[in-house]
Amino acid sequence: MKRFLIRSLLFFVACSLLFHGCGGKSGPTTYYTLSPIEAAPESSPQAAIGEVNIGVGPVTFPTELDRQRIVTRSGRNRLEINEFHRWGGSLEANFVRVLTENLSALLHSNRIMAQPWERYFTPDYRVVIDVRRFDGRLEEYASLNATWMIVKTGSDKPLVVRQTIVQEAASAKGYDGLVAAQSAAAATISREIAAALQEQIPTAP
Q1: 142 - beta bridge partners?
Q2: Which residue, 14, 181, 182, 205, could crosslink 168 as a Cys pair with Cβ 3.0–4.6 Å?
Q3: Which among 120, 117, 137 is positioned nearest to 58, based on CA atoms?
Q4: How far apart are CA 188 and CA 39, in angstroms?
Q5: How high does pLDDT run on average in the chain?
Q6: CA distance linking residue 163 with residue 22, whole number of Å
């Protein structure tokens, strides 16, 4: 009985050392977030949209991408999910927030709100987005493929239906470069949507 207890104790100690040894090699987890454009560039749309309310949503994301761990592509049909490089929250929510901030900057408006909006906010136009791809190859590029439409409230027919396919090269190594490239891709679709909104919103006399 005594020998059995000693063996059990030694086994427990060995397992503990192995566990802590493996844990020590894993390294800390790093968290990332997309960044909005710093300021509206000179070439961005400049006409004021007046008192028009714009709602962003619904926005749909592939389930394999909307997770906390960052997903990269290592082949045509192969995805890599990294345990120690993660989004600070939901990738879908992060994308929607950055898109909304970008549109506000590009259209010079504080009347842009993401779904679900407050009960006192009624959008005149809605931007609906179906994101089909938003990933990339580590240290190479980020890819965005999304179909989006602009719908006027009360209408059964969209005013605009377009697709944005963009690939942004990673300007830095590692996950920092990938996330920066994804932020650039989000900025590209934001500019396209902002330009389309200005085409559809009547200019105030």
Answers
A1: 136, 168
A2: 181
A3: 117
A4: 14
A5: 83
A6: 46
| DSSP 8-class letter at 2 | H
Please list, residue by residue across 96-125, b when 16 or more beta carbons sit within 10 angstroms of its beta carbon and e when fewer do: bbbbbbbbbbbbebebbbbeebeeeeebbb
pLDDT in tens, 167-189: 999 988 889 999 999 999 999 99
Q: What are phi and psi of 52, to 5 degrees?
A: -85, 130
Using CB atoms within 10 A of its CB, is residue 136 exposed (0-12), middle (13-18) or buried (19+)? buried
- Whole-model pTM? 0.81
Side-by-side strand order, sheet with 141-152: 112-114, 54-60, 125-137, 141-152, 160-169
Q: Which helix or strand (DSSP H or E) is residue 6 part of?
A: helix 2-26
Q: Biggest alpha carbon distance in the chain?
A: 95
**Quick check: 95 and 164 in contact, CB under 8 A?**
no
d(CA 5, CA 158): 74
Cβ contact 103:190 at 8 Å: yes
CB of 82 within 8 A of CB of 70? yes
pLDDT, tens only, 8-23 = 444 444 444 444 444 4
Q: Which amino acid is at 26?
A: S
